[in-house]
Design goal:
The structure is a homodimer. Chain A is α/β, with parallel strands linked by helices. Helices cover 33% and strands 23% of the residues of chain A. The first copy, chain A, is built from ten helices and 17 strands. The first copy, chain A, is globular, with a radius of gyration of 18 Å.
């Protein structure tokens, strides 16, 4: 069992690489601090389709095709695709990547889905189950508001703790050939339920899960936060961030110097009126492709713990008065830049 | 790359075993032909809970605990759980297995989810990612009607091609120690869309995907149907079965002698008024635990291709006039009975 490490982690030695990654986002994300780093900015939120759901599907296909192009691969080179989104029955994924005609494993981890997809994809590549696999996720402000909240035309007011669903899609090709960044390990996340019920404060709901997975990772590897260049959560936002830092301090870990949150990176808090920050499966996926991976490839960051976070809820569970449990899937990335 | 076989299959040699499996079903399923083989029959569709969704969650937890008991394991012995259901954002799974406090990878493959969970679980065990993992899925007639169709009190009429969602949950423990049945291989399924739009005839929507995966499996292994004791689809029902057999004949394969369908096994077609047969994530999962696995363990069947099928749709995709694509995930099971 040499692949396992500690209680919840797996180690892949030097075998799994992020061969390429691509991102497509909407207009608002394109106007944000990372705007110029995304591969494509779509001005039309409908992408010329008849519905937001179809638009989201198109974005998945577009991101996947761009990632394939960057890797110099054809769809038939991909052994399997791990994919998911936020919509009921994951329809953005099903209708998005059907055109690639590749084997598919559908996932649901709410906004943590890119962490889940990278984890399962890396597990597959490391085991020799395919020379190349893909991880693809998406979300769309319009489809998510319709799925979880209010009709857009209603113009509901949002509390400052609410997050803003990122319109976009991120896709990664994982494989065996050496690239600028490898997936060195994963730490599988547990569902953590602190009993919170406020779907307009998902950062608070997810922070305990992020704490659980980050703590477990550090314990499994017997490392301190200072041994990481960055520890980057998915979409806790500014409310969830404060809670995470406090929860981790209670466990004896101070990650304030290392911590970033994709949800806080993607929008300009002061000028974009996006509440506590970005969220959605596309948030961590597009920030990973546009910002995190390049820093690793350039060697600016050597070791990054990437921890997409998800709030496990639906309209029905909310209406039935259920809590909002969280989950966080951690992926350990290491730069190979300047290596032999 | 010795684990891969052909275009879409993976081979696990003799390393992955089904250590235990358990099933829980509702009253109707308990009155069906397989009634006495299920581990538990719940007379109360609410299981004493306040909603169908909570009842479904309870069934997942119950099935998982029974499978653990049969294997003589505690939750902490399970390295990771692969789980899914039919509900929006997979809430039956999230709220069902949170109590086990184990790492979770949430899946969505519609009614094919047990095929997906067994596939990913077997991939994990074979690679040494855990000594034991679990695969757990569920569905519930009440929660599925609410999610996809009409309020139960409305008493809508169903066409004969419609299937009946199975109330229940199935759970399997996979591991390295030898048991009566092993998972010898998997064939990953592609999404197949023939352009059908009738959500009341999901068998027809899924049959092309079942054909695609079964054909691919037979080609990858260069085998004929006669080399299998049974080829068992998930929930095509009697309409989908006819289509599958015809589609396979067009590809040069006749599986009529080997073919069974879990949806047609679970209810008594003549006396239970369940339309074309059973469906739902619990259909193939409970039939697997109660019927298929025991036949393998007893050596009555030596080689079975188990092919859960899923119809990838949601209320929203249906209302927006989208098609209903299908997917099928194949798991090759072999008996170890009477071996050395």
């Amino acid at each position: 069992m040499s692949q396992t490490k500690g209680m919840q982690s797996l180690v892949f030695e030097n075998k799994v690489y992020v061969v390429s990654a691509a991102s497509i986002v909407g207009k608002l994300e394109g106007e944000g601090p990372l705007g110029k780093y995304f591969d494509k900015v779509e001005e039309d939120p409908m992408l010329g389709q008849d519905s937001w759901e179809e638009a989201e599907s198109r974005m998945q296909l577009s991101a996947a095709r761009m990632a394939l192009d960057k890797a110099g691969l054809q769809p038939e080179d991909i052994r399997m695709i791990f994919t998911g989104d936020l919509l009921a029955q994951s329809i953005a994924s099903s209708f998005g990547i059907v055109e690639l005609e590749r084997p598919v494993y559908g996932l649901f981890g709410a906004c943590s889905t890119m962490g889940e997809a990278l984890s399962l994809g890396a597990m597959a590549v490391n085991a020799g189950y395919g020379e190349h696999v893909m991880a693809v996720t998406s979300s769309h402000f319009g489809s998510a508001e319709k799925e979880f909240r209010f009709p857009l035309a209603y113009g509901n007011q949002r509390p400052p703790s609410a997050t803003w669903t990122v319109t976009g899609s991120g896709a990664c090709v994982l494989g065996l050939e050496k690239s600028g960044a490898r997936i060195a390990a994963v730490t599988s996340g547990r569902i953590v339920d602190y009993g919170l019920k406020d779907s307009q404060n998902m950062g608070a709901c997810m922070a305990p899960a992020a704490c659980d997975t980050i703590c477990r990772h550090l314990m499994d590897f017997e490392r301190q936060p200072s041994e990481y260049d960055r520890i980057i959560t998915g979409d806790l936002g500014k409310v969830g961030k404060v809670i995470l830092l406090e929860l981790l301090r209670q466990q004896g870990y101070d990650i304030e110097k290392q911590h970033l949150d994709c949800g806080m990176l993607i929008y300009d808090e002061n000028n974009q009126d996006t509440g506590a920050g970005g969220s959605g499966c596309a948030c961590s996926a597009t920030v990973f492709a546009a910002h995190i991976l390049p820093k690793l490839e350039q060697g600016e960051w050597r070791r990054v713990l990437f921890v997409p976070t998800g709030a496990l809820m639906s309209k029905v569970s909310f209406y039935e008065g259920q809590t909002v449990p969280g989950i966080a899937q951690a992926v350990l990335l290491e730069s190979t830049a300047k290596e032999a």
